[in-house]
Design goal:
alpha/beta, Rossmann fold, Transcription Regulator spoIIAA, 4 domains, six-stranded parallel beta sheet, five-stranded mixed barrel
Length: 446
């Protein structure tokens, strides 16, 4: 009997990419391939790329080199956003055998079989992004206690800094019945938490068009989806990965506040606390609306965790602009920041704008906001010290320990009790450690 061929995966970027890598991996398993760890020799390496920043592009090259060090004879396949945006650039990387674009990546098995029949280097199968016009579902499943479930893909927004519409195409969604089917299947696998993912999940059912009044409602919207998911048995927690502030409506906030399963955790990208930059970025809101959303969440759920994304060093951002943005964020009742240093992306309007900010100033502004994020996170954690909250336990990287997150996204650490892994237990939150993790003083009833 022939030994099955082996395949290994490496994922760069967002939760959406992780869900898609996992789905593609299951297709290989169903075709008889053995899926192995990327750190081990494999016959085929599939690298799922991101291209949000220049760092992601460079990281792709590094991962290709690592794969070939493990097996110089392996076939290397690159998929994902970077593959759609710069297919020939990737094909020219020494050792890359195949590059697949957005419309082709879910048919990677067909292309891999063709590779074995007609070996060659640097083959490109990446059509125009408009060909990625249908929704392909995906969810992650592995040794984690949670699953990332893809419910939406693509984006119709035209933010001046962003390449995602070029990499993933226009907004498209799954159907509510099919999402529910996937959720029930995930529940049957023993997963306790589902994280809803997508490029712009608030636009599920093309909700932007409905909210902005350009046509009457015809499809189920995001509020309808989460209402249906709240009835799914077997999943104890649903978490919304990220939602645009203009789409995080009062109805959605009120629903989460009253929900049995949706947790009090919102991640809303801000990008700038300055209306001048928001306009230049072509964001669909102003900072006043963002502040209203935060106030609404905290009024209904004072314990809620709120995270935001912010970009520093956008073209034309003066020192005064940055300080205005800094002060606005400092006064917001948010729990943490994801800080991104602006990097020029080809074929985006921002790359042609005047007023480029010197890189040393971009890095300094990033440092200032990173410090602010740490302060906000510690203050949020400290406010909950001594409280009892429920934690979903998982294995820690540290031997003899286990970790987990509360419903409102506080990370805790506790001595390992194997029987508690992948269970939700009430925990009293203890001391905040220097590494930003809370000790668990007592697992109530455990």
């Amino acid at each position: 009997m022939a030994t099955p061929r082996t395949v290994a995966f490496y994922t760069l970027g967002c939760k959406l990419n992780y869900s898609e890598t996992s789905a593609i991996g299951r297709r290989f398993e169903q075709a008889g391939y053995g899926v192995t760890d990327f750190r081990q020799p494999a016959d085929i390496y599939v690298i799922n790329t991101c291209s949000v920043t220049d760092f992601a592009d460079r990281k792709c090259r590094q991962v290709v080199r690592k794969a070939l060090r493990r097996n110089p004879d392996a076939k290397v396949v690159v998929i994902g956003c970077y593959a759609q945006l710069k297919p020939q650039e990737i094909a020219d990387i020494p050792g890359v055998d195949l590059v697949l674009g957005a419309a082709e990546k879910f048919r990677v098995l067909d292309y891999v079989e063709d590779l074995s029949k007609a070996p060659g280097k640097g083959l490109v199968e990446a059509g125009a992004v408009r060909q990625a016009s249908t929704f392909v579902d995906a969810f992650s499943f592995g040794d984690r206690t949670r699953s990332f479930l893809k419910v939406q893909d693509g984006c119709n927004y035209k933010c001046t800094f962003c390449t995602i519409p070029q990499a993933r195409g226009g907004s498209r969604s799954d159907t509510v019945p099919h999402v529910l089917e996937n959720a029930r299947h995930i529940a049957g696998l023993g997963v306790k938490e589902i994280v809803l993912t997508g490029v712009n999940i608030g636009d599920f059912g093309n909700g932007t068009e409905v909210i902005e009044g350009s046509r009457p409602q015809k499809e189920a919207l995001f509020i309808d989806l989460i209402g249906a998911l709240d009835e799914v048995k077997g999943i104890e927690r649903f978490r919304i990965s990220s939602i645009e502030p203009n789409l995080c409506t009062d109805a959605i906030i009120e629903f989460v506040a009253a929900s049995r399963r949706f947790v009090p955790h919102f991640h809303m990208p801000l990008q700038s606390g300055n209306n001048k930059q928001l306009a230049q970025m072509r964001r669909r809101y102003r900072r006043e609306l963002y502040a209203e959303r935060v106030a609404k969440i905290k009024a209904l759920m004072p314990h809620a965790c709120i995270g935001l994304d912010v970009i520093v060093g956008f073209p034309g951002e003066t020192e005064a602009d940055f300080l205005e943005s800094y002060r606005f964020i400092r006064e917001l009742d948010v729990s943490y920041l994801h800080v991104f240093t602006y990097s020029e992306r080809p074929n985006t309007p921002a790359a042609e704008m005047e007023g480029a900010v010197p890189m040393h100033l971009r890095r300094e502004r990033n440092r200032m906001l990173t410090i602010l994020s740490d302060k906000k996170k510690r203050a949020f954690y400290a406010a909950h010290q001594g409280q009892e909250r429920k934690v979903l336990f998982e294995h820690s990287r540290e031997a003899g320990r286990m970790s987990g997150f509360t419903d409102n996204y506080i990370k805790i650490d506790a001595p390992l009790k194997p029987g508690l892994i992948n269970t939700i237990q009430p925990v009293r939150l203890g001391a905040l450690r220097p590494d930003g993790v809370m000790e668990s003083e007592m697992a109530v009833g455990a």
